[in-house]
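Why do we care about 3D structure at all? Because function follows from shape, and shape follows, mostly, from sequence. That is the central idea of this module. The next example makes it concrete: a single protein chain, its amino acid sequence, and then its structure expressed as tokens.
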Amino acid sequence: MSPVQVQGEVLSIRRVGDYHAMTVVAPGIADGARPGHFIAVGIGGPDSAMVLRRAFALVEAQDRGVYGGTVEFVFAVRGRGTAWLAERRPHDPLDVVGPLGRPFQLPKNPVHAVVVGGGYGAAPLLALAEQLRSRGCRVDAVLGASTGERLFGALEAKRMTTAMAITTDDGSVGEQGRVTDVLPEMIERGADLVYACGPMPMLQAVAELAAAYGIPAQVAVEETMACGIGVCMTCVLPVRGTDGVTRMVRSCVEGPVFHADQVRFDAIGTVPADALGAPVVTA
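And the structure:
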């Protein structure tokens, strides 16, 4: 489905720990949304000087019901744009474009999957876990954050998974430590693949663990996206193709979901010298 621009309407907004969860009436977007897709939201209203949209992963999309179609996303207040968004109230208009990006790939047959979320990176994994279960998959979850207030979706994940582990850096909830401290135990229960979303260092660590156990992993990267449609080139990262060639690809178009073993995590933020089209340095 091609993305569409919708003049949506805020249905609800609520606090979830340190985050805000917003539901927007957006029928045209909800129709084609899948786990891993994201939306780009206009900030500040039609007369605002904040011209760049903000990208948010979808928590849930309902393509039918009383309102004809809704999408939910979660965000943290980090600047003027998200502060403005947090002040919206029910019935306020909101300009939304979506669904954007490439979603998670689902297995053709029932498998044992582990979903790993860091902070509100857990957002797209909830709908993913639900779809995996509908296909007969066993789903386990590992959720982590710096503090308990920065966890997201723990109660929802517990209801739809067979086993779940929680870690926090300060030990306020679950085990003290990081998701990769408990992920090996989850994998050793017979996992066939791993799905992850969260900060880049966490994704790199998850990718390395999955590779060590010889199982595939998909990661939804959290690169800064200014346009969300592949024009501005602010979200490029080095990805190795099936032909072995590294290319600088746009995470908003070719991603945000990638096969973990293809992302050059060691070169994020740079253009590797062996990347296609990389500048040639001469003496």
